Amino acid sequence: xxxxxxxxxxxxxxxxxxxxxxxxxxxxxxxxxxxxxxxxxxxxxxxxxxxxxxxxxxxxxxxxxxxxxxxxxxxxxxxxxxxxxxxxxxxxxxxxxxxxxxxxxxxxxxxxxxxxxxxxxxxxxxxxxxxxxxxxxxxxxxxxxxxxxxxxxxxxxxxxxxxxxxxxxxxxxxxxxxxxxxxxxxxxxxxxxx
Length: 194
What we know:
- It is a single chain.
- This protein is an alpha+beta fold.
- It has one domain.
- Helix content is 24%, strand content 34%.
- It has helices at residues 2-21, 45-60, 84-94; strands at residues 66-67, 105-123, 127-129, 133-154, 160-174, 177-180.
- Strands 1, 2, 3, 4, 5 and 6 form a six-stranded mixed sheet that branches.
């Protein structure tokens, strides 16, 4: 009888320890949640920012939209100009200001003004695109001129500041997109072939 009670107490303690081991964020049962020896591994915010920027660019600027067919009698002009965010992201890729050495070499850009000019707005004749079908390619090219004031602080070996009041950079952006051709709904019609 005492043996059964001791066995019951031992089983209760083991199951209690297992339940305590599975509570919380990281556990001994699942060491993949934490690092080696159940200690958390610190991750720099640089990596998460980089992933978020990549996802933002892909979601907003790297996909080519497929729009409905063009309607006769309606002007076929480019409607959306590049956003200031898109221009500055491409500008930062061309001339990155981040990643300098704090207190040794720092770059700052102020008084940013962006001028956007439409260079090309043309529509190709219809053709068949793989995985899309019959469509027309609408070419839209923008020239974006960025005017800004750039300050560069250098602290070593001789501390000094360089200020460029008339800094200019040009960024070219393509907003090409496709327009479906013919009857998109699938019913026969006069434009069902093209």
